[in-house]
Specification:
The chain is mostly beta strands. It has 1 helix and 20 strands. It has 2 domains: about 120 residues, Immunoglobulins (Immunoglobulin-like); about 80 residues.
């Protein structure tokens, strides 16, 4: 390469020189979602852990954020703040316990993101598909979908229902998710109906046990009739006397 060279005083001279240019290509590895894990059955209004494992061969510091979609619910983990949040929940179907959701570093390239959440009684019963996407700081992304990851169960039943007649009628029983001995903690109301009217009602459950009491002016007919039975209507439970 020919050119002119000037010194600090402005003097110049000509000559030739050679130049060498080095180009370094920096590659970016695309992040990936390695797994999505949950319990096989998720019960209405009961917290569970949804574990999403994400990986980036460039190191966990290269991860930017991750999203998880459950129906219309979208959850997010943000690397810059190391925080969990609900990105979208238009129908109010999810409650995310952000403070007890955690990130675990399994290796220099892998995080396990544990979302602690519960789904409301209004969430659709049945098999649930879940998908997750992870992004790195270069906006590259990887996704994974799991069809029928878990079954959402919102059916409850009454077990061991009995009553005691007298000047005050008392009815007791236990409420559990169907096919289990797991009791719901909220979202269930029990009504006692007799002679076409609601005599007592409660949403207070103690390990699934409910107690209903009411005064009855005449109990002779109730004492000589069939015992009441428990009838399930969606998530509201009604106790009715058999005619």
């Amino acid at each position: 390469m020919n050119g002119t060279v000037y010194d600090e005083g402005g003097a110049s001279g000509t000559g030739s020189a050679s130049a060498l240019f080095n180009f370094v290509v920096i590659s970016n590895n695309v992040p990936s979602v390695e797994s999505i894990v949950s319990p096989s059955i998720v019960y209405a209004d009961r917290y569970f852990l949804l574990n999403v494992t994400v990986q980036d061969a460039d190191g966990v510091a290269d991860l930017d954020y991750a999203t998880v979609q459950i129906g219309t619910v979208v959850l997010k983990w943000d690397s810059s703040t190391d925080s969990f949040s609900e990105q979208s929940d238009p129908s109010g179907l999810c409650t995310l316990d952000a403070s007890d959701s955690t990130k675990t570093e399994l290796s220099s390239t892998i995080y396990k993101l544990s979302f602690r959440l519960k789904l409301s009684w209004s969430f659709t019963e049945g098999s649930v598909d879940v998908s997750a996407t992870v992004y790195d700081v270069s906006a590259a992304s990887g996704s994974l979908s799991q069809a029928e990851l878990f079954t959402f169960e919102d059916d409850v039943v009454i077990q061991g229902c009995y009553f005691r007649a007298g000047s005050e009628i008392t009815m007791k029983g236990h409420i559990y998710y169907e096919g289990t001995s797991i009791a719901p903690t909220s979202g269930v109301t029990v009504n006692a109906e007799y002679s076409g009217s609601v005599k007592a009602s409660t949403s207070n459950l103690t390990n699934g046990l409910f107690t209903l009491s009411w005064a009855e002016s005449s109990t002779s007919q109730l004492q000589s009739s069939h015992n009441p039975i428990c009838i399930l209507k969606t998530r509201r439970l009604f106790l009715k006397k058999i005619k």
